[in-house]
Design a protein that fits this description.
The complex is a heterodimer of chains A (125) and B (40). Chain A is built from 3 helices and 5 strands; from the N terminus they run H-E-E-H-E-E-E-H. Chain A is an alpha+beta fold and 125 residues long. Chain B is of the alpha+beta class. Chain B is flat, with a radius of gyration of 12 Å. Chain B starts with a strand and ends with a helix. The chains are: A alpha+beta (125), B alpha+beta (40).
Chain lengths: 125, 40
């Protein structure tokens, strides 16, 4: 199993709160996804990327350092985005009231696993 | 209940914009709502 898929599977096993997740490079290069439906996956990737860009733009305007994680709570659930090296990012959705710190920790672990696997040559797209 | 939006930065700092008057908070919460509605 390629590293990104493995990393996402581990994330779902570790974090019971996570419902869906996508691992993406740059704008919309999907490395791994939990979605069975391609249409829903595309919506998730497009919207999550727009959220990441909006947050980055605002952060830059405020003179902040690079954005590493983003958490947004909405009425029906939460969206988490973790940014990594090589413009690789991981987005996940959860239900309401997740344990934010734990979800972010698990997502960072999954992203690191995916990137390390790629660096070791376990995965090449 | 206020919308919760939290941005974490490379230097370890955190920016929480948990109010309805922040344009960033409104924008991100709206996008998250759309995502959760359409993608799930």
């Amino acid at each position: 199993m390629p590293a990104p898929e493995e990393a996402l599977n581990e994330l779902l096993e570790m974090s019971a709160s996570v419902r869906q997740a996508v691992l993406v490079r740059s704008e919309n290069d999907v490395l791994a996804s939990t979605f069975a439906d391609k249409g829903s996956e595309e919506v998730m990737v497009k919207t999550a990327r727009a959220m990441l860009d909006a947050a980055r733009g605002e952060s830059k305007a405020m003179g902040r350092t690079a954005l590493s994680q983003l958490f947004v709570e909405a009425a029906s659930g939460c969206v988490f985005i973790v940014a990594g090296e090589k413009d690789t990012w991981l987005a996940a959705t959860t239900g309401t009231d997740p344990t934010v710190g734990l979800v972010l920790y698990d997502m960072n672990t999954a992203l690191r696993t995916a990137l390390e696997g790629e660096a070791e040559g376990a995965y090449s797209k | 209940r206020q919308p919760r939006v939290e941005l974490y930065f490379d230097d370890g700092s955190l920016l929480a914009v948990n109010n309805k008057s922040s344009s960033l908070s409104v924008k991100l919460t709206g996008m998250a709502d759309e995502l959760l509605k359409q993608a799930l």
